[in-house]
């Protein structure tokens, strides 16, 4: 990596020293006040900003939008778990990722190295996402105004898989889906268990669909969006009455993740066959590729997000290169693509 400039909006000098110990090509510029922060981004071009939301008097979304307008990717520092809502807000309006502040004094040398590698990886991902940064509209501008006729439509299921960059992408899609669609929606977002309920609650406030965190054994209903619970796989099963229900389990991680997009897509294809719509959004790795293959083999439809609009093109690229897709669609056009398929 070439020498990169990092705007560090926090007062934890010990954390800066730890990161620089392992990655000395990173140049940190530390600021500890809102005035200083705003002054810095006026005159200098930074490759990424690490931000503690508790250093900022206003809503964290305001700060993230400011950074995004300057094409500076943002990674948020989580101090305590009661800050989760701030992190969700930041991710939903464009922050690339977050990390939990390490208690450096309690860590062994090996743990310090592991923690620093994790932070460094997030910095690299953020820097690489710079060209794809785009501002997220305010929630009041995102209500669906599409008109579609679903009277002759076949009941289908929509499964959306996303990872890094997913929260902001989902906020550009889910609110634009009308509440009367003849389908349930399942969202598999790679996110910890403590985050997914808050994320679902946030989406519910800006969507016509009802959005909720998925619960074990609940029946799938049309017009409801189920966000997979963090650290649980979500698969579909039939109950004793033949109704399709959600099953949450803690089986081994697949490709290092749980929930697995692959597992949900495969089970959806098993029960819905050609009436399955799979959507692969931004993210690192290849989760969703095998699931997309299964949906295609069942006669269903796969949409992949375009490279130009992906924060990370890893997951969509993997599906694209294998040929397991029907359409490549820019993020802002995905809601219309979904609704056109649902009309049939």
Detailed description of the structure:
Helix 8 packs parallel to helix 9. It is elongated, with a radius of gyration of 20 Å. Helix content is 34%, strand content 20%. The protein has 344 residues and is α/β, with parallel strands linked by helices. The strands form three sheets. The protein has a seven-stranded parallel sheet, with helices on both faces. A five-stranded parallel sheet has the order 2-1-3-4-5, sandwiched between helices. The chain has a two-stranded antiparallel ribbon with strand order 10-11. The protein has helices at 13-22, 34-43, 60-69, 84-92, 109-128, 166-170, 193-206, 261-272, 289-297, 314-322, 334-343; strands spanning 4-9, 26-31, 48-51, 74-78, 97-100, 157-162, 185-189, 210-213, 224-227, 233-238, 244-249, 276-280, 301-305, 327-329. It has two domains: 4-132, Response regulator (Rossmann fold); 139-343, Methylesterase CheB, C-terminal domain (Rossmann fold). The mean pLDDT is 91.
């Amino acid at each position: 990596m070439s020498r990169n400039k990092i705007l560090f909006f926090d007062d934890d000098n010990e954390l800066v020293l730890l990161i620089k110990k392992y990655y000395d090509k990173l140049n940190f510029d530390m600021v500890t006040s809102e005035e200083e922060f705003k002054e810095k981004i006026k005159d200098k071009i930074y490759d990424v900003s690490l931000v503690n939301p508790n250093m900022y008097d206003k809503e964290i979304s305001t700060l993230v939008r400011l950074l995004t307008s300057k094409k500076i990717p943002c990674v948020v520092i989580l101090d305590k778990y009661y800050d989760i809502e701030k992190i969700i807000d930041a991710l939903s309006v464009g922050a690339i990722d977050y990390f939990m502040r390490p208690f450096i004094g309690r860590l062994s040398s090996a743990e310090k190295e592991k923690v620093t590698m994790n932070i460094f990886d997030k910095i690299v991902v953020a820097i690489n996402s710079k060209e794809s940064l785009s501002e997220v509209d305010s929630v009041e501008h995102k209500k669906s105004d599409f008109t579609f006729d679903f009277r002759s439509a076949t009941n289908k299921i929509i499964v959306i898989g996303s990872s890094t960059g997913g929260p902001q992408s989902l906020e550009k899609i889910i609110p634009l889906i009308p509440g009367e669609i003849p389908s349930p929606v399942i969202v598999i977002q790679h996110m910890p268990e403590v985050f997914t309920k808050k994320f679902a609650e946030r989406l519910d406030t800006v969507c016509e669909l009802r959005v909720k965190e998925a619960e074990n054994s609940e029946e799938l209903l049309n017009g409801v969006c189920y966000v997979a619970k963090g650290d649980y796989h979500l698969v579909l099963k039939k109950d004793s009455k033949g109704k399709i229900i959600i099953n949450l389990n803690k089986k081994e991680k697949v490709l290092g993740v749980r929930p697995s997009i692959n597992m949900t897509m495969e089970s959806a294809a098993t029960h819905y066959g050609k009436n399955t719509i799979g959507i692969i959004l931004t993210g690192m790795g290849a989760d969703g590729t095998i699931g997309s293959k299964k949906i295609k083999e069942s006669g269903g439809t796969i949409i992949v997000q375009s490279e130009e609009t992906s924060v990370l093109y890893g997951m969509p690229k993997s599906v694209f290169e294998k040929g397991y897709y029907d359409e490549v669609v820019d993020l802002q056009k995905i809601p219309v693509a979904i609704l056109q398929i649902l009309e049939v």
